[in-house]
């Protein structure tokens, strides 16, 4: 029994019209729309809900302003739901009821976030092609160019990252209630956690600041490969959205990334090629620092039109052309 991953996230925002354009430019499909709520879907059915901050029944925020209000994790069976319900029954904010005709349980984690579980609604994608990488020791892409993406179509919400007031308490909660496993740590400062012993490097990252700030840091969307990170980022840049940092590469998880500012709260990330771990993995400890966060990164992003770093004038048809 284990949690399978993120099934749905819910933002609370004060500008639905702006969020509508933002997430459609990001590459999500608008599945449903009402006066106070937008429902988007990723390729595999993972949902992103954006609700007006005044919508009745919306869980309270852990910080002021637009932010992530709820994370819904998917499980495999009704028996799993019942077992998890027994584990959290005595925790604050326990709920067990129907949402859109399906059972959903949950509680409030030690950081104040609404945490929910449901039978997964995500679809298995059997015909999704990704890039094949040629290396010095393995040349498997023959007579075939690597893909170029005009924009990204995210597969799912791969992980969420929160600022927490007490990283040890929140890490212990997810481990004891839901069986999450720690992948790596910044001792006393941060914890990377995955849903099960076998899986991607992290589904949840908890970061404790000296100020004790609580809130959303970012939500990360999985795309096929490094080429889609670049193609998605360039398209999003052409749409006028502002880069926070990227493209770049994380040493801790090996993933390629590109972060943008999100009007619905925090940052938003395209990422691909993270490490895959098993139960044999031993968590490492890192001292936070610039070279630990990013092996390399472009500050301010790339311009979608010139393909150069923002603010650098294009000289001609080729990037190497000089005036």
From TrEMBL:
Name the record gives this protein: VOC family protein
Q: Which domain of life is it from?
A: Bacteria
**InterPro entries, alphabetically?**
Glyas_Bleomycin-R_OHBP_Dase (IPR029068), Glyas_Fos-R_dOase_dom (IPR004360), VOC_core (IPR037523)
Q: Where are the transmembrane segments?
A: none
Residues in VOC domain copies: 156-273
Cited Pfam families: Glyoxalase
């Amino acid at each position: 029994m284990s949690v399978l991953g993120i099934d749905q996230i819910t933002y609370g925002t004060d500008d639905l019209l702006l969020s509508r354009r933002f997430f459609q430019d990001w590459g999500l499909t608008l599945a449903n729309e009402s006066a106070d709520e937008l429902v988007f879907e990723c390729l595999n059915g993972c949902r992103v809900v954006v609700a007006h901050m005044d919508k009745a029944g919306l869980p309270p925020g852990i910080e002021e302003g637009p932010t992530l209000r709820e994370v819904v994790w998917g499980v495999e069976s009704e028996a799993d739901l019942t077992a998890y319900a027994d584990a959290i029954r005595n925790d604050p904010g326990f709920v067990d009821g129907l949402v859109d005709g399906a059972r959903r349980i949950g509680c409030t984690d030690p950081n104040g976030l609404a945490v929910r579980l449901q039978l997964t609604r995500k679809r298995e994608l059997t015909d999704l092609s990704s890039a094949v990488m040629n290396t010095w020791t393995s040349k498997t892409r023959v007579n075939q160019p690597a893909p170029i993406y005009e924009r990204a179509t995210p597969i799912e919400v791969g992980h969420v990252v929160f600022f927490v007031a007490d990283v040890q308490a929140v890490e212990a909660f997810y481990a004891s209630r839901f069986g999450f496993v720690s992948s790596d740590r910044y001792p006393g400062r941060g914890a990377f956690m995955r849903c099960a012993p076998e899986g991607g490097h992290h589904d949840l990252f908890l970061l404790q600041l000296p100020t004790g700030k609580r809130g959303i840091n970012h939500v990360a969307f999985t795309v096929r490969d490094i080429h889609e990170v670049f193609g998605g980022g360039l398209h999003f840049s052409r749409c006028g959205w502002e880069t926070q940092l990227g493209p770049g590469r994380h040493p801790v998880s090996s993933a390629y990334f590109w972060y943008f500012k999100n009007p619905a709260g925090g940052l938003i990330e395209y990422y691909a090629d993270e490490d895959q771990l098993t139960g044999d993995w031993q968590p490492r400890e890192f001292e936070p620092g610039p070279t630990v966060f990013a092996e390399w990164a472009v500050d301010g992003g790339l311009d979608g039109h010139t393909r150069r770093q923002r603010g650098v004038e294009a000289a001609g048809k080729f990037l190497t052309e000089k005036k």
